[in-house]
């Protein structure tokens, strides 16, 4: 990315494309670990951290411009991608609970438990406040995400929080 030489449209396209690609990688993680929810959760954490480490410039671009992109001309494309990604994640949760590998949990709570800590540590890394590479935090944050997921209450059938 060439910084100030990029137009708003180019930035928006970069943000949406990067998020679509990242979401596809996330779906590949849960698909590859379809029978092992713990490995899937830890894989999602590791993916997020390694992706942010390997794509620092793009991760920074997303952090700075995601909300503006969502409100702009590419907002509908971004929302459609999010809907598809969230549907895949919800289907994965349902399959895990139907097979007894995991209790049914709220998608919103699951998403927060897995991704909020990884996003926060990635922000610290992107700001230059960490000494170790992001992937070195994957094991601890993966264990914490799995423990957090196990601690979540069973989902109630409230369609707002599915």
Give an overview of the whole structure:
With 162 residues, the chain is mostly helical. It has a single domain, classed as Tetracycline Repressor, domain 2 (Orthogonal Bundle), CATH 1.10.357.10. The chain is 72% helix and 0% strand. The longest helix has 25 residues, at 8-32. The termini are far apart.
User: What would CATH call the architecture?
Assistant: Orthogonal Bundle
Instruction: Give the ordered list of helices and strands.
Output: HHHHHH
Radius of gyration: 16 Å
| CATH class division | Mainly Alpha
How would you describe this structure in keywords?
mainly alpha; Tetracycline Repressor, domain 2; 6 helices; globular
Structure at a glance:
With 162 residues, the chain is mostly helical. The protein is built from six helices and no strands. The protein is 72% helix and 0% strand.
Topology:
Layout: H1 8-32, H2 37-54, H3 56-71, H4 75-98, H5 107-126, H6 138-151
């Amino acid at each position: 990315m060439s910084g100030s030489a990029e137009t708003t449209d180019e930035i928006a396209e970069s943000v949406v494309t990067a998020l679509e690609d990242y979401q596809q990688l996330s779906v590949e993680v849960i698909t590859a670990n379809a029978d092992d929810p713990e490995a899937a959760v830890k894989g999602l954490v590791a993916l997020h951290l390694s992706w942010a480490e390997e794509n620092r410039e793009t991760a920074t671009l997303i952090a700075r411009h995601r909300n503006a992109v969502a409100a702009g001309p590419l907002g509908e494309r971004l929302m459609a991608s999010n809907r598809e990604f969230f549907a895949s994640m919800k289907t994965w949760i349902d399959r895990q609970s139907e097979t007894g590998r995991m209790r049914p949990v709220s998608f919103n709570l699951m998403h927060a438990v897995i991704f909020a800590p990884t996003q926060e540590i990635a922000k610290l890394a992107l700001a230059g406040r960490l000494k170790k590479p992001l992937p070195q935090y994957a094991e601890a944050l993966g264990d914490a995400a799995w423990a957090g997921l196990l601690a979540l209450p069973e989902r109630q059938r409230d369609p707002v929080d599915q």
